[in-house]
Amino acid sequence: MYSLLRPKRRSFGRQSFSRRARIEVLEDRRVLSAPTVADVNIGSTAWTSSFVDYLETANLGADGYAIPVGSSSQLKTLPWDNLDQIRITFSENVDVQMGDLSVSGVNQTAYAFSDFSYDPNTYTAVWTLVTPFAKDKLLLDLDGDGIDPVQDSVGNVLDGEWTDGSSTYNSGNGTAGGDFEFRFNVLPGDASQNGAVNYSDSYAVLMARGKEAGMTGYSIFHDIDGDGVVTTDDWYGVYFSMGHALPAGNPAGMTNDAPTTTGFAEVNVDEDAADVVLSLFDAFDDAEDEVENLAYSVVDNTNPALFSSVGVDTLNGQLTLAFAQNAFGSAELTVRAMDSGGLFVDTILSVIVAPVNDAPVITNFHVTEWQGCWVLSGNVTDVDDDLEGMVVTFGGILAGRNVETPVNGNGTFLIETDLEGVPSGLVSAQTVDPHGAPSNVAWCFVLVS
Question: What are the structural domains of the chain?
Answer without folding.
Answer: 1-32 (no CATH), 37-252 (2.60.40.1220), 258-354 (2.60.40.60), 361-446 (2.60.40.10)
